[in-house]
Amino acid sequence: MSDRLFIFDTTLRDGEQVPGCQLNTIEKIQVAKQLELLGVDVIEAGFPISSPGDFNSVIEISKAVTWPTICALTRAVEKDIDVAVDALKFAKHKRIHTGIGTSDLHIKYKFNSTPEEIIERAVSAVKYAKKFVEDVEFYAEDAGRTDNEYLARVTEAVIKAGATVVNIPDTTGFRIPFEYGEKIKYIMEHVDALSAGKAILSTHCHNDLGMATANTVAGVLNGARQVEVTINGVGERAGNTSLEEIAMIFKTHPDLNIETNINTTKIYQTSRMVSSLMNMPVQPNKAIVGKNAFAHSSGIHQDGVLKNAETYEIMDPKDVGIDDNAIVLTARSGRAALKHRLHVLGVDVDGEKLDSLYEEFLKLADKKKELNDDDILMLAGVERTRDHHIKLDFLQVTSGLGVRPVASIGLDIAGEKFVAASSGNGPVDAAIKALKVIIKRNMLLKEFTIQAINKGSDDIGKVHMQVEHDGAVYYGFGANTDIVTASVEAYIDCINKFRKKSYQ
After folding, report:
1. How far is CA 395 from CA 15, 420, 492, in A?
2. Residue 444: strand pairing partners
3. Which residues pair with residue 169 across a beta bridge?
4. In whole angstroms, how large is the CA radius of gyration of the chain?
5. Please, are residues 118 and 157 in contact by the beta-carbon 8 Å criterion?
6. What are the angstrom distances between the C-alpha of 40 and each of 37, 57, 197, 204, 495?
7. Degrees (nearest 5) of the Cα angle 4, 33, 488?
């Protein structure tokens, strides 16, 4: 029988503490609804007393989602708890998350207090919160650097006071896996109320030493049954434990007998949403959701994957919501990858012809970082059966502070001129919406990345896009000193690669 692991997502609280990544209430509601679809058990919606915006966000998120528990953070202060209670009044399932620092450093320098007084304050806060909600979580801030014996005493005291969850945060990301695992194990063995099922332990690990996920797994394997995580691992300083990593670790290791409620097929779209709204790109080599996570460029790897994906993939990309793996053609690619790409493009070659093409392929690949479909067809001496029918004729965008962005666009489609206009939440959004007025296709923007080729305000911006149409994903590219123009050109580049020619 598997043990249930509860997923506590703090993207909207701890994750949002990243400078420059703050979300407004509408954006937070979007994320919260997506987290509900993803299957998280608890959404930490904010720290209500910290600002009117946070207070309002907790209220509106409480109204917007149904089955996840909505959690509000407080200090071990009655006023904080009062404000949290007020913010949670519309939540169908509500939790107050209160706590105080327990390490010697926090007790001495932050609170100028004593260990016994800290326990009294912890107990008092839990008892006070318990007057208003049944579900109370206590956090022992800086538990990672707290003496285990003292931490066990704190845990026992707050459970006796009514806490249903006790959070053991490695607030500074200091611990390494065996230390954090031993800490959880010690508490489990020395607090009778835990073995009696009166409460559960929670992990909350930070990534200052790159150990957040490993520490979290060590905590779970030693008895913790809630993990506090964020989408893409966003969070203060080096970030928090990544939800997607924890979910897929236990999915790919069923022998550990740990189950979550996460619908893993929603992981990728959730990752992209958070990345976009927080304007925080996901590093390409990020586990699970990075653009290179399922990309293969080595010839040896490509050959193996083409024969059987399991040779180099421990999980199916579809399990996390990615359409397929990517065979990237570079100078390191082998004959098998080239042959496969040609076959996909409708060109079948073998034997000496393949050998000859491969030699030419390597020469070109040495000059280019990555070869696209046009490059491959050129090498094969095959012209595309379609030309690029759509060209950008003109683009005018009006935007600025206090002004709703509006775009006017002109397209040349096979010699015929079309003009349209639209507004949006930004200049790029307005321009693409205007384009969609003309190109009436069911198109979904799946990835949008911007790179500066050099440096400086006069630099050329390079835009890469992925657009899904009719069950297939198409890659597009644009480059211009005007980033909005580059974005539209990249979108058009995708459309020009659609299999069907009818654009109207």
Report:
1. 37, 10, 13
2. 468
3. 204
4. 27
5. no
6. 8, 18, 22, 15, 36
7. 125
How does pLDDT run across 1-21, given as a tens digit for each residue? 469 999 999 999 999 888 888
Same domain, 25 and 77: yes
The partner residues of 452 in beta bridges, in order of sequence, read 461
C-alpha 191/C-alpha 70 separation (Å) is 27
Full residue range of the structural domain in which residue 432 is found: 390-495
Q: Which tokens go with 10?
A: 């703090």
Neighbouring CB atoms inside 10 A of 283's CB total 12
Both structure tokens of 165: 């969850």
The 10s digit of each residue's pLDDT in 204-262 is 999 999 999 999 999 999 999 999 999 999 999 999 999 999 999 999 999 999 999 99
> Residue 422 in 3-state DSSP?
strand
Q: What is the pTM of this model?
A: 0.74
Of 379, 404, 429, the one marking the end of a domain is: 379
Q: What is the pLDDT of residues 286-345, one digit of tens each?
A: 999 987 777 676 666 766 756 776 776 788 888 898 776 666 777 778 888 788 777 777
Spatial CB neighbours of 124, under 8 Å, sequence gap ≥ 6: 76
Helices (H) and strands (E) in the chain, counts: 17, 18
State the Cα–Cα distance between residues 112 and 40, nearest whole angstrom. Answer: 38
Kindly report the number of other CB atoms within 10 A of residue 416's CB atom: 9
Q: Output phi, psi for 229, to 5 deg.
A: -140, 170
Please classify residue 432 by burial: count the beta carbons closer than 10 Å to its beta carbon, then call 0-12 exposed, 13-18 middle and 19+ buried. buried
Collapsing DSSP to helix, strand or coil, 252 comes out as helix
- Residues 19 and 152 grouped into a single domain: yes
User: Where residue 192 sits, what CATH number does that domain have?
Assistant: 3.20.20.70
For the chain, the residue count is 504
